[in-house]
Amino acid sequence: MSDLFSGRLALLAEPSNLSLLGQCLHGIERECLRVDARGELALTPHPRALGSALTHTRITTDYSESLLEFITPTAEDPQATLDELDAVHRFTYSRLDGEYLWSHSMPCPLPDEARIPIAEYGSSNVGRLKHVYRRGLAVRYGKTMQCIAGIHYNFSLPERLWAVLQVAEGDTRPRRDYQSERYIALIRNFRRYSWLLMYLFGASPALDADFLRGRAHGLEQLDADTLYLPWATSLRMSDLGYQNNAQSGLTPCYDALHSYTESLRLAVSTPYPPYAALGTHDASGQWQQLNTNVLQIENEYYSSIRPKRVTYSGERPIQALMARGVQYVEVRCLDIDPFLPLGVDIDEARFLDAFLLYCALQESPCLADGECSASGSNFLRVVKEGRRPGLQLQRRGQAVGLQDWARELLEQIGQAAALFDAGQGGEDHARAVRVQRAKVEDSSLTPSARVLACLREGRESFRDFSLRQSRAHAEYFRAEPLPAALAQAFDDDARRSLEEQAALERDESGDFDSFVAAYQASLVGISV
């Protein structure tokens, strides 16, 4: 344990500061496919009873019309966040007609690419922009890859906590700059250590055999309909035979916020020849991508974690970060746990809090001398073979056993967990760390190992297992419907969102081509 980490822990453990960790904010976004009774992709439109995917604050769609996304408001207590997520699930199930929410991150058996429906958001300019962006994803990467689902965990430390640390360290910069730098330092440590999350929470060691669409791969055949890797933790986070050449040069190692935002600004402004050859419009004159640049928009950049700032109306994510700094981080590498109705539980949430606090307080030098590449290699090695006995990773140029390194990290993460418990009472966070320690000592306890055990022992295909879990989760949610008043509140939200979309479309001014041009021009000339 570094002296810096110990000193920061001690400072936050002082009675005047101990309550600060109770003011962390949490939010969860959960993606899930709608499927029919046979476990095949639901080709029905986004249910109108759920409201407008464009304007509803809690229920929307991600890439496909069939890919739901549930978004919780922020809360200081992660259990309150999970309760919000639970309520959204129960309402959704009460309005689904003979359909299920797929229990796994890897998709159900998918139809031909042409039949996978891209999400629709209506006729307003902003709705059309969201749709065309998704058409661009289809052109660039294919629809199949966009049907993978996950859990996004949003987390922030209170600004007062950053202020305490800044004063103690004698840092005289504007508070915004200090806070942003410290979030970027957190992200650097996340890149160093996020392989641990893949080992502990990865839950996608297998997938439907048709998912790869004939692409070359190194997977093994478990049965006629299932591909897998015997020691994999999260095939969702592997390359799966898929290479994104346009983004290959986009690997910012987060030396500073300005270098991160500048790399994204250049990516959304720089043409990429293969995309330029395709053009923005197809042969019939319809928009098929927003532009021909490396990225159409900032969110196209695939990353396991992002620095974030709540945006104002009409403001782009880069602009918000540049203007007001980092406000929170979004963890994007978490699989849906198919054994859990919500795909995530309170032990995972509390462990993530302790893990992210550790990343925030631990010393975090810039990634140099190959460490950035080594971190990426460690991550990929764990997602493909993280449970292999004796697996070795690279740390500061030296080989280290995964188990040994994991034990060391959990010891220090346990110190961060103890700080949460000291401020909030009880030992909930310590318990969450103990649950993870058990997985390190016995890999059969990990979600990925449990999935493979179910497939093998039950002689089930990936499809059959996932559908069985989806049906069990549906029964769980339907067995206890929402109270009438809460269900009515959800119905009211759905109705208001439809009215808001209708108003946007009714009051629209200007044509779509001009709207896209103005959107593109919003970053021209901006630098950091």
From TrEMBL:
Enzyme Commission numbers on file: 6.3.2.2
Molecular functions per Gene Ontology: ATP binding; glutamate-cysteine ligase activity; metal ion binding
GO biological process: glutathione biosynthetic process
A Gene Ontology term for the protein's cellular component: cytosol
Pathway the protein contributes to: Sulfur metabolism; glutathione biosynthesis; glutathione from L-cysteine and L-glutamate: step 1/2
Residues annotated as domain Glutamate--cysteine ligase: 10-382
Catalytic activity: L-cysteine + L-glutamate + ATP = gamma-L-glutamyl-L-cysteine + ADP + phosphate + H(+)
UniProt keyword annotations, A-Z: ATP-binding, Glutathione biosynthesis, Ligase, Nucleotide-binding
Top-level class of the enzyme under EC nomenclature: ligase
Record HAMAP family: Glu_cys_ligase
Family per similarity comment: Belongs to the glutamate--cysteine ligase type 1 family. Type 1 subfamily.
Protein name listed in UniProt: Glutamate--cysteine ligase
Organism, as annotated: Stutzerimonas kirkiae
